[in-house]
Amino acid sequence: MATAVKTGGKAGLRFIGYIFNVILTLCLVAAIAGTVVAITFLVYVQNYLDTGVDDFDLLVSDASLTTMMAYVSENGDIVKLENERLDTAENRVWVSYDDMNDYVRNAFIAVEDKRFKKHKGVDWYNTAGAALRFFTGSSMRGGSTITQQLIKNVTGEDAATIQRKVQEIFKALALEKKYDKSEILEMYLNHIYLSEGCYGVGAAAYTYFGKDVKDLTLIEAAALAAITQNPYWWDPMLYPDRNYDRRNYVIQCMYDQGMITKEEYADAYGRELVLHTGEKEEASAIYSWYTEAARGEAIQLLINEYGYTSVAAEKALLTGGYTIVTALNPEIQDVVEKYYESSGSFPNFDSSPVQPESSFVVIDPENGNVIALVGARGEKKANLLLNYA
Predict the structure, then answer these.
(1) What residues does 199 pair with on adjacent strands?
(2) Percent of the chain topping pLDDT 70
(3) Which of 13, 168, 177, 293 is most buried, judging by how many CB atoms fall within 10 Å of its CB?
């Protein structure tokens, strides 16, 4: 009996030892596999993902030096075109953080990223939810913080892929280490598209309400924040009823998050929005076809030379005090423009609602330089039109 118990005890110890060895081996394998995966991931991030945020420096700089267009005269002198000063071709008015009131700042935070002031660039709770939706066959969209949305707006990268999302996360973490929350929010609020051709809250405040951002009321700030998710769908001019529902939701979010008082909530919720009915101010001068083409090429040169994003390159060009020296021949350009602006220069087909289109490029045969350019018939009345040339 005693011998049987002793034998059984040894067998039990051997079994426990076996199980322990199995568990230890599995833990070791898991640790090695985890280490390999981690190292592989770090190598992948370092070699295949762009996680740099240096070009964001251009978006928070205070530089405001005018960039000029120029050409080379017959004598070899660089001649600046005083009437061809560059500014943004978009309806964008830069507004500093201090010139935005709390209603504006809080409205966007409340509806877009309620944990903005607490996280370090990534809201891991929302990110996990987005990842779960992706792996269960749903869209990976959603879960982006204001910092991540800023990166998408600046880089223009919005593909619903794992690589893009991972790169965005690392950029967001780096951005939050380099800039404080006020700088990030300032950049974000100056780059979001708010329908009606408005980029940023500055242009939107003038377009919708005819006033400065600092003077916006709670309901006006909520109306702008309501547009962000789907600018066309929530446009208060095109679809006032839709914006009404969405801005009430924004106001509710602000109240639930303690950003406004009960009195402010009661005064704004359900209130009618009064839109500005006056004429819109022109965002900028109208570029000639030649200047606009040269401007686009100069932006591309900055992107290629310094690795800027298109937004950062545009900001650098428009505020850096550059002189863009072109191959323009102003006399020939003037002749071509006048010819194309004249309706008598081309046949009209009264029976057709669509008239034949035309463009013109003059090239110096000795060196291939483009010395004149017109992109379409008629007077050029806007920027960033389709250039047939």
Answers:
(1) 92, 193
(2) 78
(3) 168
Q: What is the C-alpha to C-alpha distance for residues 1 and 375, in angstroms, rounded to an integer?
A: 105
Q: Which SS3 state, helix, strand or coil, does residue 301 take?
A: helix
Residue 133 binned pLDDT confidence (cut-offs 50, 70, 90): low
Q: Which residues of 109-137 are buried (b: 16+ CB within 10 A; e: fewer)?
A: bbbbbbebeebebbbeebbeebeeebeee
- Contact yes or no for 105/117 (Cβ under 8 A): no
Question: How many angstroms separate the CA atoms of 250 and 296, rounded?
Answer: 38
- Measured distance CA(317)–CA(88) in Å, rounded: 9
DSSP state of 60: S
pLDDT of residue 227: 96
According to DSSP, the residues that pair with 85 across neighbouring strands are 68
For residue 91, name the pLDDT band (cuts at 50, 70, 90). low
**Mean pLDDT lowest among 8-17, 44-53, 95-104, 188-197:** 44-53
HEC readout, 329-377: CHHHHHHHHHHHHCHHHCCCCCCCCCCCCCCEEEECCCCCCEEEEECCC
Calculate mean pLDDT across residues 152-175: 78
CA atoms of 341 and 380, how far apart (whole Å): 8
> What single-letter DSSP state applies at residue 58?
G
DSSP state of 66: P
CA nearest 60: which of 213, 175, 215, 206?
Answer: 175
Task: Decide if 259 contacts 110 (C-beta within 8 A).
Answer: yes
Of 152, 154, 169, 162, the closest CA to residue 51 belongs to 169
Most distant CA pair in the chain, distance: 121
Q: Read off the tokens for 289.
A: 């076809």
CA distance 341 to 371: 18
How would DSSP label each residue in 118-163? TSSS--HHHHHHHHHHHHTTS-------HHHHHHHHHH------HH
Beta strands in 177-316 (DSSP E): 198-199
Measured over the CA atoms of residue 54, residue 57, residue 63 and residue 67, the dihedral's sign is positive
Cβ 106 vs Cβ 226: under 8 Å: no
